[in-house]
Known about the structure:
Shape of chain A: globular
Order of helices and strands of chain A: HHHHHHHHHHHHH
Distance between the termini of chain A: 59 Å
Oligomer: heterodimer
Order of helices and strands of chain B: HHHHHHHHHHHH
Number of strands of chain A: 0
Radius of gyration of chain A: 25 Å
Amino acid sequence: MATNAPDYALEHATASAVLRPQPTATEAVVRFIRTKPLGAAGAFIILTMLFVAAFATALAPYDPYAADYAAQFARPSAEHWFGTDEFGRDLLSRIMYGARIALFVGFTASFAGCTIGALLGVISAYWGGRLDLILERVMDVLLAFPQLILALAIASILGPAVQNVVIAISIPIIPRAARVVRSTALSVKENVYVEAVQALGASRPRIVLQHIVPNVAAPYIIIVTAQLGGAILAEAALSYLGLGAAEPTPSWGLMLSGSAPSYAEKAPWIAIFPGIAISLGVFGFNLFGDSLRDALDPKLRRG
Amino acid sequence: MRTYILKRLLLIIPTLLGAACLVFMIMRVIPGDVALLILGGDQGQIDQKQLVAMRKQLGLDQPLLVQFGTWLWGVLRFDFGKSLWTGQPVVEELLIRLPLSLELALLATLVSVAISIPLGMLAAIRQDTWVDYVIRVVSIGGLAVPSFWVGILCILLLVIFFGWGPPLEFTPPWVNPWANFQMMVWPVLTVGYRYAAVTTRMTRSTLLEVLREDYIRTAWAKGLRERAVVVRHALKNSMLPVITLIGTEFAFLIGGLVVTETVFTLNGVGRFVVDAVAHRDYPVVQALVFLTAFSFVIVNLLVDLTYAWFDPRIRYR
Lengths: 303, 317
């Protein structure tokens, strides 16, 4: 027993050297920053945005809805970092609260659209036959509409409200997600292990949920992050066109619409800061999404 | 080639039929009564007689299937009814606005191709150097910046620094090229920049793939100069996916026109959509949404045919 102990320790040391220990969380983060600097920058922007949105109540110096006619069109200063708008509302506070709407619409629309799309894609691929044919044609029809035009039409029917914007943005995402997931599911379906569980007598829902769905997770995550930036951008565009959240909601797109450009000479900051917020947010999601795609799927490596 | 063209032509019929069906459904079946919405009935009291008259005018008193038949028959004859706002036939209103949007779309495409192909090439042949990083960051940035904001910034800069705003009245280029140029240059750059961002990324990645092919190594081994290898051998073969992308990006372009024309108050088709939505002019919305889908399907068809023309292997699939 006593003589065996050193042997065992030696063996253990060799094994762990060969297998390389699991990196700790800090090591993983450092590695990510070093190998994917652009992705890390994106993640940093996203985390900042999440932080600001979560603690907007504590962070915002003013009430985003409170009009202060004494401070109309105030220049950016120590009291109002980003200045104020035509009602004297503090722009910094409004942008901080705006992050909530952008993130809410972005995440819900992208998740809803991609999840429905992915489910349809998996079903289409696994069942095949006539169902696949019909679903594919329906997706073709949806893909024939430019994303923003379809969202515009749906939003115009549903009326301006945040939850309607989510629906309007998520529907055009469905066929795009379905297409990507379907093609992966088609190749997963051909694997021998699927045949094996079929031979074991597993039911169809079980095969789909237990054996196919986990294997299409990578393209699903990729497309969710890829659509996030686009969804935030679409929300801004719809709000700008007056089809998104209604006044006085502090939505970034809405802050740029209507009167903002007409005060160009007097108060250019009204038109500048919300635009920076949108661009920076979408930029962060795009950078992160790109790196994630590289990491998860080397075959798809693009740009 | 002839059978391929025929096959592709037949394939677009169900798609267009489906699109017509979907547009009809969005406008008639989804919540509420269109007649009620037009009369503003969702906000207050409404005269019952007026409502019945409006329903009759819109043909909403007919059975659904008859309504769909009427709409489809109209689509086939390119007759989309009259605008509720102006009372003019939709097609006439559209034709007035089409030249501006076509000019904007074509020029923006030209600008974007002129920017994106050289930049994408440069990024690919200098992969992982600072040149590549700058081009990638700029092009990812181009995708992130909303085009309406770029438009607003353009106007801001022009007004603040030059005290000058773009002219408001559209002059066709054949009447007064200079006035036309003054009006179109900023919208074209705004749309073209975003479009270029997408194409640059695509050019870079496809060129990178091609540059790893065996025949490129052979070209290097033969002692060809870089210019010959990249331009004559690699670029030619990497252009096919880029052509497809230029086609699919056309959809982006239409979406881009909607906001850009609104920012620059250009009286084009995109602005027409926004105005129609604001006025609840449903026949116009219906027609324009269908027509964007129609033009998108046609552009895709043309792209596919070009593809088949360049790459004979596709025809035999």
